[in-house]
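Technical appendix A lists one of the benchmark inputs used to test multi-chain prediction within the project. The record comprises two sequence entries:
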Amino acid sequence: VSLPAAPRSLFDRRLLIVAGKGGVGKTTIACALGLVAAQQGKRTLLAEVDGVGRAACLLGITPGAIGEAHEARPGLSVMSVEGSAALAEYLAIIVPVRRVLQVVFSSRIYQYFVAAAPGLKELMTIGKIWYEAERVDEATGEHRWDLVIVDAPATGHSLQYLGMPRAAHEVFRAGLVGRESRRLVDLLTDARRTAVCLVTTAEEMPVNETLEMYARLRGDLRMPLGRLIVNRTHQNALDPAAVERLAHAVPTLRDEHERALAAEVLQRAQEEAGWTAINRKYLRQLEKAVDVPIAQIPFLFAEEFGVEQVRTIAVRLAAALAPARRPRDKHGKA
Amino acid sequence: MARLEDVLGRHRVVVCAGSGGVGKTTVAASLAVRAALGGRRTMVLTIDPAKRLANALGVHAIGGIGAAVTVGGIPAGRLSAMMLDQKGAWDDLVNRHAPSPEIRERILQNRFYQHLSQSFAGSQEYMAIEQLCELHASGAYDLIVVDTPPTRHALDFLEAPRRIADFLDKRVVKWFIRPYFSASWTTMRFVNRTAGFLFRRLEDATGISALVEVSEFFTSMSGLFEGFEPRVRRVYDLLRSPDTAFVLVATPEEQVLTEAEYFCHQVHDLGMGLRGVIFNRAHRELAPGRRELAKELPALLQRLLGDAASVDALLENFQRYDVVGRGDGLRMESFRRLLPKNAAVAEVPNLNSDVHSVAGLRALHPYLFAS
C-alpha cells in the first residue's frame, strides 16, 4: 500500500531551470526564485548561463569570475557559467598534471576545438551545472547546494543546451563522453531531481514560443515541468464605464491645457485596459494549452529595476507559488 | 538631426538589429510598408513573424517570396516579403552548395551532421545575410529591409558569417579529414605531443566509431564550401557599404540599453553605419510644463466624472505610468547622448494592441516618422 505523495514544494529538487523567450524577465524571475528558496532555508546556487553578470547585479553584488560561486546573501550564491571555462575546469579534474594542461590550453588545436566543435560548449555548460547540482562536500558528506537554479538562455538557445546531452549520448554511446552524457540526461529527465520553470509574458509571440518549448519539453526532451510563470500581467481595476465617460468628456473641454491633461489620463487608462485585455486573452490560451500550474506575477510599475524591485517580485512570487492560495494583490503597485 | 524617412530614402539596405523581444519584426515590416507607400520596390526579409503578420504581408510558405501585398493603399507590386526558415538553415546551406547529389545525401544522412545541424548556432544568421546578398545582387528591389534573428546578443548576427568561416577553416578542418585518422594520424602522435595527447583523449572520450563518423563528415564537407571565404568577405563588404544602414531597435529597459550600447560601439568599430535608433514600447512622464496644472487634476476629473472612486482609480493609474515614464525618459535621454549626431531617433509608445495587419503597421508611422 503506497501512501499519497506528500505535497512538494517547487524547491524540493536539486535543479530548477528557468527558461523562456528573450525579454520576458527570465533573469529577474530566476533571482526572485533564488531569494524565495533561500528564504525557505535552501542553500541555493543561482547559475547564469552565458550571461553578462546581470543576475549578480540584480542581487546587488559585483559579478565575479566565471565558474566561481559568490555569495549574494546568506543562503544564496551566484555563478556565471560558460562552456569553455567549464571545459577547462573539467580537464583540470581529469588531467591533474598542471604542465600538460598549460600546453594543451595554449595549443591552437585546442582553441579551435573549443571555439568550433559543435555542441561542446553546450555540453560542458550542462556538465558544469550537473557537477554543481550533485556536488558533495567531502568533510560533511552533504550536498554543497540544496538547490541549483539555472537562468537559461532564450528559448532557441535553451533548446540547444538541453538537447545536447542526449545528442552526445547518441553519437558517442560507448566512449567516456557517451557515458558522461547519459548521466546528464538522467538528471535532466528525472522529475524527482529536476523541474523546468517556463517564464513568459501573456502576449502573442512569447506565448507562441512558450507553447513550442512546452511541446519540446513534453516531447523529445522528456523533461519535467515545475511551473509556468506568467510575468508582468496587467490587472486593470478601472471601471470601463468611467473610462468611457472620460473619453466622451475630453473633447468637450475648452481649456487647451485641461484637455491635454485629461487626454493623458485617458490614454494611460486605455493603455492599462488594453494590456489587461491582451494579457487575459493569452492567459486563457495558456491555461487551456498547458498542463502545469500557472503562477501570475503582476506588472511592476517602477522607475528602474534593481535590488529592491527584485525583492518585491520575490514577495509576489512566493505568494503565487504558495499552494491553494491565489495572489490577492490586484494592483501591481511598486 | 536626421530623420528616419531620409534613412529609408538614402539606402538600399536597412538592417533592423536589437536584442530579442524588442519588436524588431514589427518595426522592420512597418519601415518596409512606408517605403513601399512612397513608391519604392521594397522587400522585407523577415525571420519569425507572428502568423497573422506573415499573412498580412502575404507570406504563406517558408522560404517563398510572398505575393506582392496590395492592401492598405500600397501601389501594386511595391511590397514583397520573404520569410526565412529558422530550423532548416543548415540543410539549406548543404542543398545549395553540395557539389553533387551523392555528397549532399552523404552529408544529410551523417549522424554527426544531423546533431550538428540542430545545435550549431549561427547558421540562420548566416543564411539571412546570404539571402540578403542574393536579393541585393538581383537588383529587383530599391530597398531591402532585414529583420534579424532573435539572438541573446544583438551582435551575434554580425559575427555569424565569421564564425562559420572559422568553423570551415581549411587549415583546421584538415585535422579531421580521413587520411589523418587512417594513415598519418598514428605518426602524428609521435611528431606532435599536444596533438597526440588530444587525439588519444579524444579517442578515449568518444570511441573510435564516433570518430570515424566525425571524420567522414568533415571529409564530405571539405570542398563543399569552396569559395566560402570570398563569400563571407562579400557579405561584410555589403554590410559596410554606404548603401547599407543599421537601425537599432530597443525598448527603454536597462538591460536592453546596456546591450544596445555595446552594439553601437561594435557597429562603429566594424566600419558599419548606425543610422537610426527606434525606442519601442516607450513611456514618457508628464511634460514639465503640465506638472503644475496636474495638481488640479483631481478636481478636474471630479468635475468630469463626479464619481470619487473612479477618480481615485484613474489618478492612481495615471501616477503609476508617470513613474514608469520617468525612468524610460531618463534612460532614453542618456542613451541618446551616446549616439552619433547624424543618427535618426524615433520613439514608439507601448501601443495596446498586437500589430498584425498592414493597417496596424501603418499606425506606427506617425511615431516612426514624426517631424
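The longest strand of chain A covers residues 225-233. Residues 325-330 of chain A have pLDDT under 50 and may be disordered. Comparable benchmark entries are summarised in Table A2.
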